[in-house]
């Protein structure tokens, strides 16, 4: 009887965990979440310093609300200043906590923050909403999230971005977007050497497996001990 009760209890816990994870997955699926790592070691001692991390949300048709949140900043070899060197439109916060860009300004929404001369790597987490623009006629124009680095003249360092915007990362915001559609580019002369890498954020299901495993361990602990052999 005890074993049956333990099994039922475990089943209830596992079912509850699965339900909560399903809810988490549903909410997670609404956003595109990933990590960006910028290798900026080539800019150390570059005469065009100081450099700034430039984050931009360019509005499209502007008929829906979209936002991009930048968080979990990790800087190697130095630091970001913690205050914006430049901000415009729907931009708020700082790297000390999180930076939020919204498409509230129909022209541009931008945030830039200087980083110290010794910085070799900048990593941060990106969370993008995924609302597709809609229009009554014609072709809708989606929002564009861009990451760049600008120099002491507030000009983006040149990259291989074919659009001419000198972005290091470019993301077109549409429903159902995945990391495979993100575009990354390396920098070009005279500021060559900056590269970008992307990594995914673990899905909630991974945490769920750990939770179910923990429940199983608890159930095993509650099993009655075997009678001692005389």
Brief overview:
By secondary structure, this protein is of the alpha+beta class. It is 20% helix and 33% strand.
Number of helices: 2
What is the radius of gyration computed over CA atoms, rounded to a whole number of angstroms?
Answer: 24 Å
Side-by-side strand order of the widest sheet = 5-6-3-8-1-12
Specify the structural class: alpha+beta
Residues in helix, %:
10-25%
Q: Beta-strand percentage? A: 25-35%
- How many DSSP E strands? 12
Biggest β-sheet, characterized?
Answer: 6 strands, antiparallel
Shape: globular
Mean pLDDT: 85
List low-confidence stretches.
9-29
Q: Give the assembly state of these chains.
A: single chain
Cα end-to-end separation: 25 Å
- Following the backbone from N to C, one meets helices and strands in this order, namely HEEEEEEEEEEEEH
Q: Can you tell me about this structure?
A:
- The protein is of the alpha+beta class and 230 residues long.
- The protein is 20% helix and 33% strand.
- The protein contains 2 helices and 12 strands; from the N terminus they run αββββββββββββα.
- The strands form 2 sheets. The chain has a 6-stranded antiparallel β-sheet.
- Strand 5 (91-93) and strand 6 (98-102) form a beta hairpin.
- Helix 1 packs antiparallel against helix 2 (204-221).
- The chain starts with a helix and ends in a 9-residue tail after the last helix.
- Residues 9-29 have low confidence and may be disordered.
